[in-house]
Design a protein that fits this description.
mainly alpha, 10 helices
């Protein structure tokens, strides 16, 4: 979005000056709403930020793409919806998917390979970013704005499921505790993520008392044993 926002607006029929001005506004929003992440990334949590913002980013990408179906005869409404969707996407992206991967990848590797792991994570991020930027113009031409934005909106939904099932929370953890966090079996982490869904529905939608799921619930004893054995091996 930051790279091609001007071209997207030009395709929507916005003037060059209007497109550049709106892109500038997107950059300002991106910067402003990244500031709260300095606080929320250590209070609300890395995983929670991603779980909150991925669905919102998907929704706003769908909104942008579908706005191109507004007839060109309603130019003002069409342009307003596209710009609104872009700005809302920036608001959702900036405190979540923007800063979290860099903070998380710095914690995910053991100390003895942390520098190499962080270099690999950064290189992977920018390589995929380059692929996205290179392929976007051809995808836009082949799928039209509606299909192109829907494609990436769908990937945001897939990302939400991957975070829910496979990404442990690392906020407030010491280096020793991080070793235990990442020693939990993947299947147990996924089971914990699935248990969070009924808890969230009962607690936050139906407003009923509910016991939050425990990552180390019955059946996860083996994970705890493996984590303790891993800690002994490190010592």
């Amino acid at each position: 979005m930051p790279y091609y926002s001007t071209q997207v607006l030009l395709k929507a029929g916005v003037s060059h000056i209007g497109a550049l001005s709106a892109s500038l506004g997107f950059g300002v929003i991106n910067w402003l709403f990244a500031l709260p992440a300095v606080y929320t990334i250590d209070t609300f949590g890395r995983r929670n930020l991603l779980l909150l913002t991925f669905p919102l980013m998907s929704l706003f990408l769908f909104f942008i793409g579908f706005s191109f179906w507004i007839p060109e005869s309603h130019e003002t409404a069409r342009t307003a919806c596209i710009i609104l969707g872009m700005y809302l996407f920036g608001i959702a992206y900036s405190p979540g998917e923007g800063p979290v991967p860099y903070a998380y990848s710095a914690e995910a590797y053991p100390l003895y390979i942390r520098a190499e792991g962080m270099a690999l994570a950064t290189a992977t991020t920018w390589s995929l970013n380059s692929i996205l930027n290179i392929t976007w113009p051809s995808m836009l031409a082949a799928l039209k704005p509606q299909g192109a934005f829907a494609f990436y909106a769908t990937w945001n939904l897939i990302g939400w499921w991957l975070v829910l099932l496979f990404l442990p929370e690392t906020k407030g953890k010491t280096l020793e505790e991080l070793d235990q966090v990442f020693n939990v079996r993947t299947q147990d982490q996924a089971a914990y993520g699935l248990r969070q869904i009924p808890y969230f529905v009962k607690r936050h939608i139906f407003r009923r008392e509910a016991e939050p799921p425990d990552l180390y619930a019955v059946g996860d004893a083996e994970s705890i044993h493996q984590a303790e054995e891993g800690d002994k091996g490190i010592v």
